From TrEMBL:
Classification of source organism: Bacteria, Pseudomonadati, Bacteroidota, Cytophagia, Cytophagales
Molecular function in Gene Ontology: DNA binding; structural constituent of chromatin
Family assignment from sequence similarity: Belongs to the histone H1/H5 family. HCT subfamily.
Coiled coil start-end: none
InterPro entries the UniProt entry points to: Hc1
Protein name (Swiss-Prot/TrEMBL): Histone H1
Amino acid sequence: MARFDEVKNLVLSLEGDFEKFYEKSNQAAGTRVRKGMQDLKTLAQEIRSEVQNTKNGAA
């Protein structure tokens, strides 16, 4: 569950930047959103690999 918490914390940490970008058109916040989304993509891929390895190891 620690990995799930990492995902939640990352998404929640981006909330303010999403608001600034979409509601106030703050371009710097958009850059932070893009970086955060890239980090989320990387984290998701790591978790996918862990799940696959665990699944294959258990089968």
